[in-house]
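Q: Got a minute? One more chain.
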Amino acid sequence: MAHNLSDTKVFSGEIVSGVNSVVVVINRGGLIQRFNELAQKYTGYKEEDVIGQNAHDLFNVASGSS
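A: Always. Here it is, folded:
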């Protein structure tokens, strides 16, 4: 069973890394767990700099007019 879980995690990691879309994986607490290459390209952030950061705080864009 542990072997299957490990295989599943590797497989899903490969999908996140290889998909041709921006992918940001966030846990239930709102913390970034994965940040793929395209997300890095479009945001300018490196994965190692955003892992563990609060996604809402990082990507919060002020709305409304000033």
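A: The mean pLDDT is 82.
Q: Perfect, thanks.
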